[in-house]
Amino acid sequence: MLESKPFIYPFCTAGGCYIYDVNKNGIIGVSKETYRYLAGKTNKLNPIAEHEINKMLINGFLSHKKFKNILHPSSNSLEYILDSALEKITLQVTQQCNLRCEYCIYSGDTGNYQNRSHQSKKMSFELARKGIDFLIAHSQDSNRLNVAFYGGEPLLEFELIKNCIKYAKEQAEGKEISFSITTNATLLNEEIIKYLYENEIMLTISLDGPKEIHNKNRKFAGSGTGSFDKIMENMEILKESYPDYFKNVMFNVVMDPTADYKCISEFFVGYDTVKEAQQMATMPSAQYSDKTVTMDENFRADYNYEFFKIFLYKLGRLEKKYVSNLNLSYFGRLKSTYHEKRTPTSGLHDYGHPGGPCIPGQMRLFMDVDGVFYPCERVSEISDAMKIGTLESGFDIEKCMKILNIGKITEQSCINCWAFRYCFQCAAFADDTKNLTAKKRLQQCESTKRDIEEQLKDYCTLLELGYDFEGEENPFIQISKKEWEAKENDTEKKTAGISL
């Protein structure tokens, strides 16, 4: 029946069995018999499996085709994009910071990261102005632009930021321009808050949870005291003075994996100052680090329970007030990646590239205090591989092309990988600060595939339980036990209908 081994990934949830077809980019609900046969768990082909497999073959599934070579689809248009379609520049206005955080990527000799350390260097207005000019000159085909300010702590250079914003508004006439700042929020005061509000600046604030957890890692330089009280004091001023401005505020929560996750979650659910704001949870960066991030078992259990609560909320079984905003972005990623953006195809082309790398410089061009270009602010500033140009010389197209086609260094592994469409490994995963290496990239592959498999399972489980990804966010609906059992009994019908 099958002339060659199909390019598929079989998996099961608690409620059903599925085949992810790589060529078609489709998820198909199948019987246990078909799953066992296609997963290689049995050589016996019973009538049920034979019927289902024949049906899949008739509809173009179960092809064995793979890429012949790795090449990013944007390779041929890279020079045009970098010349005419830039969308953002992030200006490193200072390398100094008034905090010394335990897991900061700029902690230098006292930390675990292969990166620069905090220094007194800052950007001149002349250099910043040239950076803004560069963005505008290379964005003739982009209608929306963003100028972001980064550090160190960017609010140490508040006057420079104001001058940059004034200049950018004058020069970007005819384009929609926005501004954003990543800050520890300790330097906010009434003057700065008023300016941020009047200019509708998007604000990303570092806040790791309640006082005892936040202060463990985020301390003032010199005194070593925690920064929580000062941040909360400033947040109260901001919220009292401009309550509607909170729509422009996001809290970036770097979660300490040795801390009490339940305590962190309850803080962001119940603390009045922050509970309604946007929240984004991340783990300490493992890139460029000499230290392995190990998650405490209690932390892991509570962390997973929070996702369970999110699913209950989405299914109408739990009120929103009990759910933290911390991990709602995970649900958004499921919906976006596996429902909205997962486009079914007729089959693979002769070439393609794993997901992961953005077009270096287009979406998040990062310029340091010396005018050196990097793909974004998350890469190491001591890495030669990540220096993709300078303000004076422009882009190094050869380096940009190598970063864009990072999958080329692991070509055979990527060609044979079922998860390449959803791979999230950018070039930083392969960077040892000297070269982009296949060894370093491959070290991340098993955990990457494991994450993608879990996301597929979560997506299918929500479909099994009746979640409507096409509809609006479910309000809380009290469902009777009888109604819930009826939904559960209908799971098999819903599973069989998943062929996307």
UniProtKB/TrEMBL annotation:
SUPFAM superfamilies: Radical SAM enzymes (SSF102114). It holds the Pfam family Radical_SAM. Keywords: 4Fe-4S, Iron, Iron-sulfur, Metal-binding, Oxidoreductase, S-adenosyl-L-methionine. It comes from the Bacteria. Its EC number is 1.1.99.-. Its cofactor is [4Fe-4S] cluster. Residues 81-314 form the Radical SAM core domain. Transmembrane segments: none annotated. InterPro entries: Aldolase_TIM, Cys-rich_pep_rSAM_mat_CcpM, MoaA_NifB_PqqE_Fe-S-bd_CS, rSAM, rSAM_sf, Sulphatase_maturase_rSAM. One of its GO terms (molecular function) is oxidoreductase activity. NCBIfam families: rSAM_ocin_clost (TIGR04068). This is Anaerobic sulfatase-maturating enzyme.
